[in-house]
Structure prediction request, 266 residues.
Amino acid sequence: MRVILSRKGFDSSCGCMPSPIMPDGTLLSLPIPSNDDITYSCITWQGKSYLEIIHELNPKTAITHAHHCHLDPDLRTEVYHRKEGWMPAFGQTGASLTELHENGVGVGDLFLFFGWFKETEYKNSKLTFKPKARDLHVIYGYMQIGNIVKSFKDVPEWMLYHPHTGNKYDNLWARGLNAIFTPSPNLSFNKSLPGAGLFKFDKRYVLTKDGYSRSRWEFPEPMKGTPITHNPMGWKDDYFQSAARGQEFIMECSEPVMSWVNHLFR
Prediction:
């Protein structure tokens, strides 16, 4: 099994703000702006649209009701209307998909989705970032690959809403540069859990080393030196320096890596 740390959601260039760690611990990853079909007004969390949440957190945001978003990976059932048969789905394309292919990523491998997050609180019934909250890279969800859709003819009806089924991907399907991953029924290493899901905020899911900038990660000591794509020279004396623009960080599942993974799901 391979483990892929996959960066998703708002960042300093797309969205230009952290995703919120909600007061109840929900890690609400905000999808990046795009020209896909779904708008921020169309997706909701606990009765409030993502557009409203973004504007409460950043009244000066450039995102408006007219902005569309890239709802991917799509892991949270309740945020959008679903057709029968729906399951979590994650699309990848272009150079990032090529990197997955070149590293042999396939059925049985485990995506751990992470992003830039910051703790929030309610003030006068409005959601706001906590004044002294840290900027963190946090793992918010996962998917163990159960199936890979590699051509449009294999796309089931329930998946047609997904951004990676849009017209702009027509040529990429034919060139093998577009794919949509769906999960296994259960985790192979923990049958009690579904093959895809979400985490709530807990220190075990925080990649950022305490007291360091968010791109400097802390792993258990036995993992030190584990080859990780994008920045094989990233291991320092007391942290791992992640690549600034890396999207998929792939590592082979050695015994120390598997021990860390089991800790995440314990």
